[in-house]
Amino acid sequence: MIQTIIFNTQNKPTGSEKSEVIDFLFENLQQYGDPKNQIERAIDYSLQEFTSFGGFTMVLKEDGEIRAAVVINRTGMDGYIPENILVYIATDKNHRGKGIGKELIKRTIEETDGDIALHVDADNPAKMLYEKFGFTNPYLEMRLKK
Q1: pLDDT(100) > 80
Q2: N or C: which end of the chain has fewer CB within 10 A?
Q3: Strands 65-74 and 116-118: what pairing?
Q4: Which domain, by its residues, includes 79?
């Protein structure tokens, strides 16, 4: 049985719960991930631990273990930029192909108010799953790194 836990400003994780999510994302994002301090910052943004628009962090647990996690940050720019950005999403690398990622995306879409943007590498196998849920690629993103 899959248990859904949503952490937000009304339901903040304990220190050990937050560390568990950070460690899970760090380990399971693999080549698509970031350092732990950046993952923690995105989670803190979702929890409004500093001035931010908030969002939420959702985990799916099975047998007491995290099987999937997502971090959604609100952008505060509804109307011209999607209201939310899906910052991190991962399924347990040892439990992929069992529909857990599909379930996480479904529940994320249900929980999120407004449009959702996400960045995905062109070679990421999850890209096809996102497209099945209606995500499209209408723009080419360009970045200037300073």
Answers
A1: yes
A2: C
A3: unpaired
A4: 2-132
